[in-house]
Amino acid sequence: MDLLWAMVPLSFVLLSIAIWVFFWAVRHGQFDDMDSPAHRILFDDDEHAPQKPDAAADTANEPPKSHD
Fold it and tell me: Where is there biased composition of kind Basic and acidic residues (predicted)?
């Protein structure tokens, strides 16, 4: 029974901290745009520069040389 005298006030303190964190997040715009970050990963807006062909890639496409 003595444990209740400690746990009930502790639960109220934790509840008040959770409520304060929630209202802090709302005031600072944490919940303003919930959809865009999830869809942003799907948009490919990276511009890739064309790569120069390697010398090894050039020789890989040549026909094999005959050794007569």
Answer: 42-51
Cα first-last separation, the chain: 99
pTM of model > 0.70: no
CA distance 23 to 31: 11
- CB distance 5 to 11 below 8 Å: no
CA-CA distance, 14 to 22, in Å (whole number)?
Answer: 12
CB 25, CB 31: distance < 8 Å = yes
pLDDT at res. 53? 66
Neighbouring C-alpha atoms within 13 Å toward the C-beta of 31: 7
pLDDT surpassing 80 at residue 9: yes
